[in-house]
Amino acid sequence: WGCDSVRLDGLTFCNSPFWTCHFYQCRNLDIRNCSMTTPARPLRAPSSDCIDLDVCSNVKIKNCFFNTDDDGVCLKGGKGVYAHETTGNGSVDSVYVTNCVFGPNLHGTVTLGSECLRGTHVRIDSCRVDNTCAILRLKMRPDTDQFYSDIRVSNITGRCGEIIAMRPWTQFFTLEGSGRKPKGRVSDIVFENIDVDCAQAVGHMHGNPSDYVSGIVFRNVKARAKKPFHCVYPDVSMHDVQIELQAGESAPNPDEQFEK
């Protein structure tokens, strides 16, 4: 909490009953060559996120292995209609995730939410996925003003559930009698140089009715999937994208199995 210039190198974290590593109001984090795991059987470890970045900035995550029973890297910062006015809440920015491997127990590779106000300048590069969850997971709260922008996902290989999953998230929903109408804004997200097998769909982007989405780009993407890309927003462009639909049932969606 409140730390500056922290380095974790070569550490092993295992069997955490809750968030494995939680960094709050920290900056200049360097996390490399670490392993973070929890078992899926015989007992699950729900909400055991590998890394939770809570109001943090300038974070470098490199050469790590993640395989817990929730999200790999999760951006937080607060939730609720008064979250932007609450002391201690804030944004997460300048996050760099490179050369990492994301294992099969995960429910999200890199996730913004469900308690994220503002996530900007996020880079996910040269990683391998070996799971059935989304590479980029955006949890959209109808009771929180959220802003997700300037995100790059590049040079990703392996197998996943979806390339992107943007869905409403209503756990602990409350407007606290305020009458406010929060909005979510998602902009400037680029997926580039991706070659994956998707156990579900290529992607799913359908948030809350008040959410605004712009500047979504897919470039040089190859995906084999059970279902095509589902998106209700017009400002999405694709360049050199190859999608091969495959027969068979899609894998269960983590969002539909559990809410944490």
Automatic annotation (TrEMBL):
This is Exopolygalacturonase.
